[in-house]
Amino acid sequence: MIIIGITGGIGGGKTTFCNYFIEKGIPVLNADELGHTLIEEDDSVRNQILDKFGNSIVVENKINRKKLADLVFNDQTKLKQLNKIIHPAVINLIKKKVNTLKVTSNFVLIESALLPNSILKDECNYIISVLSEMNLRIKRKKKDNLTKYELSLRIEQQPTEKKFEKCSNFIVINNGSLSEFKNQAEFYFNLFSNLTEIK
Length: 199
Description:
By secondary structure, the protein is α/β, with parallel strands linked by helices. The chain has one domain (2-198): P-loop containing nucleotide triphosphate hydrolases (Rossmann fold). Helix content is 56%, strand content 14%. It contains nine helices and seven strands. A hairpin with a 2-residue loop joins strand 3 (58-59) and strand 4 (62-63). The termini are close together.
């Protein structure tokens, strides 16, 4: 099985890129989504977060991700504490899912903005960075109801563009139209489909 890491900064288009592969029946493991699942469903992760950050982030007996984000993205120390809880659990979950998918899939995508800083990159055979101009990234994320300040905080916590480039085997630039972007996704889908056939 070929494992492909998809990374890039917030608003760059990596999820749209991955969605093309999902449409083609290729499994995509989204690190953020798996982290959200662990916060909601894994008692060990949930209890560690509550022990560290208290009950002020709880709404209707659930950890409120917005309250948690507001708390940690304003404090580098708290963000590191949260990542220390969530990242190992996410990595273990991804490894388990990859192991299961080996039976049915020739390749799998792992989507993570923090891949350049994670040991997870060592699990990937190839890494693709999806990069885009900052003004376009900001414009796209306005749809998610993030303020410019909230967005800037998230961007500051992610790897730099140089770091994305350094860890990548391939770079996709997403500054054009959606159809141009989909053409790039199709190119890589065909590339990895052919590689798995050769293998």
